[in-house]
């Protein structure tokens, strides 16, 4: 069979793969947003800029210091996560008990500052980052050609997502994190350093964005606006999955990436708005999101 639903099967599966890759990025980025909002009650609009910082950290490490991809995949999230920790300690900490709008405005302003700095230094033209040698090329599956690096992106993203879900939902540390948002004074009475726990949580959420940025660098052009182009869609994913829902972010991110890919096959004109149409429908039917808890 060379056609599926009247479409060449190679084109169909190619778009499905592209949708899965986009869904993997949506899942990692929305997971970071969900962790930060669900556990810290902050709408982190700097997330797209932190994704961009991860990609630039990998590119600068290779260009100026000769740091290879595999080292950058570990060091870039650490470095950007450390910047996030500094932001949390100096700025965000003062907003936890205020309305969500204050955190959104502050993080939006920080995102504009970071994007402006990198625009000033590197312009808006894209910078290329090479695929690591071990992941170059692809495998001919007969019905389609599977690039090795894109397969790696999907596997790495899903591994990190479900490992994070397991830690938050199934371990003692995750129980501390959830208790720290619901009853921080009780947790502190048991000797747990709640402010440190919150700082580490924010740093990890930021590191997830940077991790996605490193994964994206060999696929997309490294540019100061790469985060702002993606963050609106990622926010829509988080809203659809349910604000603060870890599992909702993962499942919805992957699912919407696939829906977006299939829309490009059957109705290309709607591919750029399909996520927002789904968001509007979900908000009408279930305002808390697909996996969110109704209050």
Outline of the structure:
With 295 residues, this protein is mainly α.
What are its keywords?
ABC transporter involved in vitamin B12 uptake, BtuC; mainly alpha; two-stranded antiparallel sheet; single chain; 4 strands; 295 residues
How is this fold's topology laid out?
Elements: E1 3-4, E2 7-8, H1 9-40, H2 47-65, H3 69-90, H4 100-122, E3 138-140, E4 145-147, H5 148-170, H6 172-182, H7 184-189, H8 194-216, H9 228-241, H10 246-266, H11 274-285
Structure description:
The chain has helices at 9-40, 47-65, 69-90, 100-122, 148-170, 172-182, 184-189, 194-216, 228-241, 246-266, 274-285; strands spanning 3-4, 7-8, 138-140, 145-147. By secondary structure, the protein is mainly alpha-helical. The strands form two sheets. The protein has a two-stranded antiparallel sheet. The chain has a two-stranded antiparallel ribbon with strand order 3-4. A hairpin with a 4-residue loop joins strand 3 and strand 4. The radius of gyration is 19 Å and the shape is globular. The model has no long low-confidence stretch (mean pLDDT 88).
Q: Give the N-terminus to C-terminus distance in angstroms.
A: 50 Å
Q: What structural class do helix, strand and pairing data support?
A: mainly alpha
**SSE order:** EEHHHHEEHHHHHHH
Instruction: Tell me roughly what share of residues is in helical segments.
Output: 55-70%
Overall mean pLDDT: 88
Low-confidence stretches: none
DSSP strand tally? 4
Q: From the 3D structure, determine the CATH topology.
A: ABC transporter involved in vitamin B12 uptake, BtuC
The number of domains is 1
Q: Give the CA-based shape.
A: globular
CATH class designation: Mainly Alpha
Radius of gyration: 19 Å
Oligomeric status of the shown chains? single chain
The biggest sheet, with number of strands, parallel, antiparallel or mixed sense and barrel status, is: 2 strands, antiparallel
As a percent range, the share of strand residues is under 5%
